[in-house]
């Protein structure tokens, strides 16, 4: 009996220590994110001027239609964005979907973002992820249980991927389409090419629109991180379910898809559950 009691005490103590370690890991991870968000926001330019119709005239017609539909004309200049997401994610085509909750922070005058996600792999098992685009450089960080490093990737391929990610995600703050680091070229009446140049790097993507002026998809050539090294692949994001949020009409659902030689790999489906503009503090 004494041996059983001793074993029980050891198990309880081990569980308590494990919970404390995991808790400290989460605190440390979230503190790092907070510091990065504050760094992103600290030198962000604030402006009180408003967008006017004249600023839209130089853009391709489908882009003008999108910005008018979104409510950009006459709106106050956006300099920061923060949003929340809920969805499902997977890391391989043949793996099951996992639930995910994310928060993301953007700046506009100097383009950048911090995205953090918590992915539930199984009961009591999860990983934390963080993507960062800051001063033209990208970084991808993944930690199991916020403790064990799994990925800490950077380099020119990550820089390109995060730049293109930022470009595609301006659908949530369409005023950024007017930024001096983005140039537009009309492809046809329902699509336009956006070229983003920042931090010594340029990349382009095609925005596709419907008859109402909504962006419905975004396509580009983007580097995909793989075990054997990054490869340049076709990348597609579908967006839908437009709603009025914070004074703008924006899509609230999206699906990210790699278009590979072996077939489409849909890896992230999500909805935007909350969005706020021009708040230079974190949640």
From TrEMBL:
<feature type="transmembrane region" description="Helical">
    <location>
        <begin position="6"/>
        <end position="29"/>
    </location>
</feature>
<dbReference type="InterPro" id="IPR046674">
    <property type="entry name" value="DUF6544"/>
</dbReference>
<protein>
    <submittedName>
        <fullName>Uncharacterized protein</fullName>
    </submittedName>
</protein>
<keyword id="KW-1133">Transmembrane helix</keyword>
<dbReference type="Pfam" id="PF20181">
    <property type="entry name" value="DUF6544"/>
</dbReference>
<keyword id="KW-0472">Membrane</keyword>
<keyword id="KW-0812">Transmembrane</keyword>
């Amino acid at each position: 009996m004494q041996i059983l009691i001793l074993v029980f005490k050891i198990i309880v103590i081990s569980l308590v220590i494990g919970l404390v370690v995991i808790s400290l890991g989460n605190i440390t991870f979230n503190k790092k994110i907070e510091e990065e968000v504050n760094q992103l926001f600290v030198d962000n330019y604030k402006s009180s001027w408003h967008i006017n119709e004249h600023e839209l005239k130089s853009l391709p017609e489908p882009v003008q239609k999108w910005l008018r539909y979104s409510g950009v004309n006459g709106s106050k200049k956006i300099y920061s964005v923060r949003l929340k997401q809920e969805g499902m994610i997977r890391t391989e085509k043949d793996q099951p979907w996992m639930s995910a909750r994310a928060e993301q922070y953007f700046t506009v005058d100097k383009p950048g973002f911090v995205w953090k996600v918590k992915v539930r792999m199984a009961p009591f098992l999860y990983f934390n992820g963080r993507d960062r685009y800051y001063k033209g450089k990208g970084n991808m960080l993944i930690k199991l249980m916020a403790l064990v490093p799994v990925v800490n990737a950077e380099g020119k391929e990550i820089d390109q991927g995060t730049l293109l990610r930022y470009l595609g995600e301006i659908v949530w703050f369409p005023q950024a389409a007017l930024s001096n680091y983005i140039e537009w070229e009309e492809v046809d009446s329902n699509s336009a090419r956006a070229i983003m140049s920042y931090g010594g790097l340029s990349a382009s993507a095609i925005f596709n629109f419907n008859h109402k002026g909504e962006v419905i998809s975004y396509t580009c050539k983007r580097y995909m991180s793989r075990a054997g090294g990054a490869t340049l692949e076709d990348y597609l994001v579908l967006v839908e379910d437009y709603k009025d949020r914070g004074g703008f009409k924006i899509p609230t659902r999206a699906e990210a898809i790699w278009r590979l030689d072996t077939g489409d790999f849909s890896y992230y489906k999500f909805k935007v559950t909350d969005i706020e503009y021009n708040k230079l503090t974190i949640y």
